[in-house]
Design brief:
By secondary structure, this protein is mainly alpha-helical. It has a single domain (7-434), classed as SecY subunit domain (Preprotein translocase SecY subunit), CATH 1.10.3370. The chain has helices spanning 7-36, 46-55, 60-67, 71-74, 83-96, 100-106, 110-141, 150-177, 182-207, 213-235, 271-290, 299-305, 311-332, 335-344, 356-381, 383-391, 400-434; strands spanning 237-244, 247-249, 252-254, 258-264, 347-348. The protein starts with 6 loop residues before the first helix and ends in a 7-residue tail after the last helix.
Length: 441
């Protein structure tokens, strides 16, 4: 006779059903994104388009194309990707540290968050329209447009802007109804989709004798080592010892307990290199697009100096990554607030006075950790340029790409595990309430 499922098993099964539903939402969202990246903007010549992007594949447009999953080179409806949204997020967050009104909105909870999200969307719309106009003008002057005229510009810009806004909406749906951050998963899918093409290109160089088999083995070993190093650094923590004061419980004196307050080396995650890349790609791509316009030829020099791998690009990228590391860490972590919470809970750091001294101590530790984390992000993000300069490998799948993929994947797996644990915890609570036997299977 079959055993009836226990209450705990039913609760756990319900949690797994919800998990499957959320994973299905993520899968469908990524599938829609990849299908849309092959729907072309009307009115373009595919052969001429391939020639134009082939001659610009090693600059900022090559990096931009990687973040769009190849949609830019094919000039599809998702050609701009989510980079206008990321650029808009940078602007809104920087305004939040400058203007008091924006600071107040960030403290208003959900209502303030909705307002800031609305401003970010408006900014995305403006930036996408600007970039869309720039790329259509650039393609028209490059001879990739079949029928030039006001109709083409209108249709092309509206198509590109609509594609970007749809991706923003799709990312939000994945975040709310799926698992993980939707925008990060879209960027992850874009980078992962370029891996076969990169692998084929490198294998072709090996067959042509431009790269030796030994160099290829070293390259693969180095990439595996970088992945392991990224995982190690993302898991690394600095644990600050926390001592809880003794408590009087009735007639008994409870001894104070010792605990740890963990601080990650890289608290900003993958945000700094993404923000830095978006900040550099926007002016570089705009300069490239409008350089063909009469009277704007000087933009060619700007685009060249800001192109991928140039000394100015490396310098600005390094400064931007370090800046965004400190900026974003300051946004998500407040040492003074943490010190006040420790004081209220009767906890203190041994040898450090509670209150202001504790806040200063945590701030010093956090500053050193953030500096170490920013240097780590810079070194890993600039990795492809070492390959390009020293090994002459046209590798864009590396550095920032590996960092984004590893961090997003780690966060995705962690959220899946948290969802499973929460469903199991709910089943335990139901079992205790109903008095039935425990079953997590």
């Amino acid at each position: 006779m079959a055993k009836k499922p226990t209450l705990g098993a039913g609760a756990s099964a319900g949690g797994l059903r919800e998990l499957r539903h959320r994973l299905l939402v993520v899968l469908i969202g990524l599938l829609i994104y990849r299908l849309g990246s092959y729907i072309p903007v009307p009115g373009l010549d595919p052969a001429r388009l391939a020639t134009i992007f082939g001659s610009h594949s090693k600059g900022a447009l090559g990096l931009f194309n990687m973040f769009s999953g190849g949609a830019l080179a094919r000039m599809t409806i998702f050609a701009l990707g989510v980079m206008p949204y990321i650029s808009s997020s940078i602007i809104v967050q920087m305004f939040g540290s400058v203007f008091p009104k924006v600071k107040e909105l960030r403290k208003e909870g959900e209502a303030g968050k909705r307002k800031l999200t609305q401003w970010t969307r408006y900014g995305t719309l403006i930036l996408a329209a600007f970039q869309g106009m720039g790329i259509t003008v650039w393609l028209a002057h490059g001879g990739a447009v079949l029928y030039t005229g006001l109709t083409f510009y209108f249709v092309a810009v509206i198509t590109l802007v609509t594609g970007t806004m749809f991706l923003v909406w799709l990312g939000e749906q994945i975040t709310e109804r799926g698992i993980g951050n939707g925008i990060s998963l879209l960027i992850f899918a874009s980078i992962a989709s370029r891996f076969p093409a990169e692998a084929h290109q490198i294998s072709q160089l090996v067959r042509d004798g431009q790269i030796s088999a030994l160099s290829l083995i070293l390259l693969i070993a180095l990439l595996i080592g970088v992945v392991g190093f990224v995982v190690f650094m993302e898991r690394a923590q600095r644990r600050i010892t926390i001592q809880y004061a003794k408590k009087q419980m009735g007639r008994k004196m409870m001894q104070g307990q010792t605990s740890y307050f963990p601080l990650k080396i890289n608290m900003a995650g993958v945000i700094p290199p993404i923000f830095a890349s978006a900040m550099l790609m926007f002016p570089s791509s705009i300069a490239t697009f409008f350089a063909k316009v009469k009277g704007f030829g000087w933009l060619n020099e700007v685009a060249l100096k800001l192109s991928y791998g140039q000394p100015l690009y490396i310098l600005i990228f390094t400064i931007a990554v370090i800046f965004f590391c400190f900026f974003y860490t300051a946004l998500i972590f407040n040492p003074k607030e943490t010190a006040d919470n420790l004081k209220k809970s009767g906890a203190y750091i041994p040898g450090i006075r509670p209150g202001l001294k504790t806040a200063e101590y945590i701030d010093r530790v956090l500053t050193r950790l953030t500096m170490a984390g920013s240097i780590y992000l810079v070194l890993v993000s600039l990795l492809p340029q070492y390959f390009i300069v020293f090994w002459h490998v046209p590798l864009y799948f590396g550095g920032t790409s590996i960092l984004i993929m590893v961090v997003v994947l780690m966060d995705f797996i962690a959220q899946i595990q948290a969802h499973i644990m929460s469903s199991q915890y709910a089943s335990i609570m139901k079992n205790r309430g109903g008095g039935s036997s425990l079953s997590l299977i």
